[in-house]
């Protein structure tokens, strides 16, 4: 009776939430016996989340929406009937159970949240949306829970994880999201990751939660494997999330504190962790792979790192990596990934004969103009002199004139010398 009542409450919750966002009722029901205590559906959240405001992936959608890129979500499965994921989720495969069935259901909402951050569609009346809404999701189910009955992180069978990674690589995934982390280096997982990297799959992994004490760097796998892009988490203030592991394996950071994500069946919930920072990077990688299909996985990773926005830790920090992922710059920046090339040899341009001839002509014209100007000035001067001379010449009838004689000074007559008596 209690189970029937819970099912009715779940159905009513799902119906109410779906009616609020104006889409068809969700139909996803886990197969019998697949979930021992499935998460209930949640009500939709209408507000635009802070992570979407910060990264603003809509700016880049005129250039890329992730079309044609398959993103593998190796996780707890994905609820393919969530209103914002319908039509975006392939069948995938469930490796957690022995039955050969698709992974289009989710017991705990973890994989659904990850898939939604990557590729959830826009829905009227709901602010949340994915980074690359036209990307396709390949669900690969390798666990049914994210925590055990005591609330502790559930250990995942490394061989099941390795099988799921290899399956995703063979299924054509171009981006592979691993929102999981552990301290142990399992040979099977390491080999599976190397297999995916060799098939040109960009592997994105969470750096892990539960920060070590004393400043020591603890390992984190698969983030620390070669070819894997390790992702740390930041909060709304840009500070590293408390518990986000640090180390050389942190390549980049993304929002991971109180980020909004879809839950199984319908609706949304606020979640924390590097598990939910990783899909922001995976979604950005899908945008880049759609816009730049000729780039290899390694070049896409290089592009994401090179276009990251500076974070508090500075460049190549063990806490923040290269900085905060930037979807717009990752797609639109015109980076030259080949490195600097040789400068071409200097070849002088041939002389422009027409220009030289025109310059000579203009010089001749200027010279003639100078002479004509001089002649004109001289003519004006002669005319002025003639205007002074001609009237006087006519009055004298052109006879020479003499100047008036100089006055003659009178002769001074000196008296005769006289002798004076003293």
TrEMBL record:
Residues annotated as signal peptide: 1-28
One protein family per Pfam: Peptidase_S8
Biological process according to GO: proteolysis
UniProt keyword annotations, A-Z: Cell membrane, Hydrolase, Membrane, Protease, Serine protease, Signal, Transmembrane, Transmembrane helix
InterPro entries: Peptidase_S8/S53_dom (IPR000209), Peptidase_S8/S53_dom_sf (IPR036852), Peptidase_S8_Asp-AS (IPR023827), Peptidase_S8_His-AS (IPR022398), Peptidase_S8_Ser-AS (IPR023828), Peptidase_S8_subtilisin-like (IPR050131), Peptidase_S8_subtilisin-rel (IPR015500), T7SS_pept_S8A_mycosin (IPR023834)
Localization of this protein: Cell membrane
Any GO MF annotation of the entry: peptidase activity
Active-site residues per Swiss-Prot or TrEMBL entry: 75 (charge relay system), 110 (charge relay system), 275 (charge relay system)
PROSITE patterns: SUBTILASE (PS51892), SUBTILASE_ASP (PS00136), SUBTILASE_HIS (PS00137), SUBTILASE_SER (PS00138)
Peptidase S8/S53 domain segment(s): 66-323
TM region positions: 371-390
Membrane topology qualifier: Single-pass membrane protein
Family per record: Belongs to the peptidase S8 family.
Protein name: Type VII secretion-associated serine protease mycosin
Organism (species): Hamadaea flava
